[in-house]
Design brief:
Keywords: Iron, Lyase. By secondary structure, the protein is of the alpha/beta class. It is built from 18 helices and 22 strands.
Length: about 600
């Protein structure tokens, strides 16, 4: 047929599908980017915003952002709103794992095909696609459809390529129960897809799959409990979807509150600790440099690798608990020294006096530049970023990047001597203040100055952030028309209460919510009539328009407190960004 093109690739999940093609050259985070109940793309910064994925062949370079993307894709497969197939430029573990878990537990699946970066561009402009195992056919118009001939190949032996210990074989044989056996099967299937030949012992896990994305996420956890699941290593839990102690008091609909709380209980029944924080690096159990761990939650992964020097991949939801149940992970990627090297060098301009809005903005911008490459950032050593700065940078970086690690020359532990993270010459990208101004405008989606809600604590607030906020709130009162809410973990909340910060902040008029995070909060914590949010989080400024349908003012913590008092965003650019604005104005004149 005229206009037909055929390509071959690597089948990550076997299957056949024929459907209209939906193509984008930008990676997509399914969590925060796709509605798990309808399949609509809700990432308002993405070129596919507003499109529906259901029943279409989705072609994207890769996923990005949140580890919970696997849960959202599993949910879509379970409820019938998933794409017909996924075609990727590069293998994506988060999305692939979501399909594998749906296949294992629910006997529902979709084909996933990786065709490589060079071939991927050939999909642009095509109207229909047919995936059949390792084959992809593209069409300019709808062909006369007949069921595609199957190009069946023998199923790969996922065990043969991986070296197994006697203990691994016992897990696989079911000697430690059904849950551990299924978990080991999934671990080995992923190891095979990743090209790992060995497994590694891990010392701890952080589970992201405790976020409620819909009925399938609860069914998965409860099935593991029914099979007798018990974690084999110390395991912490990410934020859940509600404040487990106060969701009724906060007015949360029981249709969310009950299953979300039950999901947290299910993971605790497997032996996980009641931590409920997206910032496990703030706990006393935080890993040390060189420690082999399995963490999910994108900001936590990036912080553990980059700031603590621990070793973890950006683990998908559900693979995290499978590894916690076995204590074994594929020895691949950032678990290996040579895979932690920088692949891109970022050079920054001369910087003035910085405020705390700089680091999330820079992380957001660099994440988009880096894609899946590990960057080495030059030019920040003299600015002496603190741990809160690195936390904010990493969370925003993880929002727009698929990379699990960044290096900052002279700052992060593996790059104190930048030569240690180099493996030959790197491509160099220069970032200008004008570039950062464009990202500032992108994060500031609100068009009128009114502020209805101030959102703080994404990721969860640290003790030092509580101290900073208390100083800003001392002797002041929030505007009666503004909600100011902070999310945090229970441990840090008690530390802040003991230090006297909570009393000052509550006297100001703020609400403090534990267990959950802004990526899961909605109405009525956000009043139904609220139109504009304000936040100092680059991560939440990106996700909020899609997650809660509100526009955002992004600024420093000090500006956020000022806005909470006046109900108005000043609209001022930070001092360090003003030279770029002057140049922009001169260009327009």
């Amino acid at each position: 047929m005229s206009g037909t093109r055929s390509l071959a690739g690597r089948s990550l999940v076997d299957g056949a599908a024929f459907a209209p093609l939906l193509y984008a050259d930008v990676g997509l985070s399914f969590w925060g980017g796709v509605d798990p109940f309808s399949g609509e793309v809700i990432d308002r910064h993405h070129p596919l915003s507003g499109q529906c994925l259901a029943g279409r062949v989705l072609a994207i370079p890769s996923g990005r952002g949140s580890c919970t993307g696997s849960s959202v894709l599993m949910e879509l497969i379970s409820n019938g709103h998933a794409p017909a197939a996924l075609v990727l430029a590069e293998a994506d573990e988060i999305l692939t794992l979501g399909v594998l878990v749906a296949q294992t537990l629910f006997q529902r699946s979709l084909p996933v095909l990786c065709i490589g970066k060079e071939a991927f561009g050939q999909l642009h402009g095509k109207a229909f696609a047919r995936v059949d195992g390792t084959h992809l056919s593209l069409y300019d118009a709808a062909p006369d459809y007949t069921a595609p001939p199957r190009h069946d190949t023998p199923a790969a032996d996922t065990h043969a390529s991986v070296e197994l210990s006697e203990h691994d074989r016992a897990l696989l044989a079911g000697s430690y129960g059904k849950a551990a056996q299924v978990a080991m099967q999934i671990v080995l299937r992923m190891a095979h897809l990743q090209g790992a030949t060995q497994l590694v012992d891990i010392t701890q896990a952080h589970i992201d799959g405790c976020i409620y994305t819909g009925p399938a996420s609860l069914r998965f956890a409860q099935q593991l409990v029914a099979w007798g699941a018990r974690v084999r290593v110390p395991t912490t839990l990410n934020s859940i979807s509600v404040d487990q102690r106060r969701w009724r008091e906060l007015g949360i609909d029981p249709a969310l509150g009950v299953p979300a709380s039950d999901l947290g209980d299910a993971y605790m029944a497997m032996g996980a600790q009641l931590s409920f924080t997206c910032a496990p690096y703030l706990l006393d159990s935080a890993p040390k440099a060189g420690e082999q761990i399995v963490w999910a939650e994108s900001n936590a992964v990036v912080y553990a690798n980059s700031v603590l020097g621990a070793r973890t991949l950006k683990y998908p939801d559900y693979l995290d608990i499978c590894i916690a149940l076995t204590g074994r992970a594929p020895l691949i990627g950032c678990h290996l020294e040579d895979q932690r090297k920088a692949r891109l060098q970022i050079e920054l301009p001369t910087l003035g006096n910085l405020d705390d809005a700089f680091y999330p903005l820079l992380g957001y911008h660099i994440g988009a530049l880096a894609g899946s490459r590990i960057p080495l950032v030059m030019g920040l050593k003299q600015q002496h970023p603190d741990l809160d700065d690195l936390k904010a940078f990493g969370a925003a970086f993880a929002t727009t990047s698929a990379a699990p690690l960044f290096h900052i020359a002279g700052v992060t532990p593996e790059a104190l001597d930048p030569a240690q993270v180099l493996d030959g010459p790197l491509p160099v990208l220069k970032v200008s203040l004008e570039d950062l101004l464009l990202s500032w405008h992108e994060l500031n989606s609100a068009r009128d100055p009114k502020v209805d809600v101030v959102s703080l604590g994404n990721p969860h607030f640290s003790l030092s952030e509580f101290a900073h906020l208390a100083r800003l709130c001392q002797g002041r009162k929030r505007h009666p028309d503004v909600v100011l809410a902070i999310t945090c973990g229970r441990v840090v909340l008690e530390q802040a209460r003991t230090a006297g910060h909570v009393g000052v902040i509550e006297a100001f008029g703020a609400v403090i919510v534990s267990d959950t995070c802004w990526c899961m909060l909605g109405e009525p914590v956000i009043p139904p009539a609220a139109r504009n949010l304000m936040t100092n989080s680059g991560k939440y400024a990106h996700y909020a328009p899609g997650l809660v349908g509100r526009t955002v003012h992004f600024a420093s913590l000090s500006e956020c407190v000022d806005a909470a008092c006046s109900a108005t965003a000043s609209g001022r650019l930070p001092q360090w960004l003003q030279p770029a604005a002057s140049l922009e104005n001169a260009t327009h004149v």
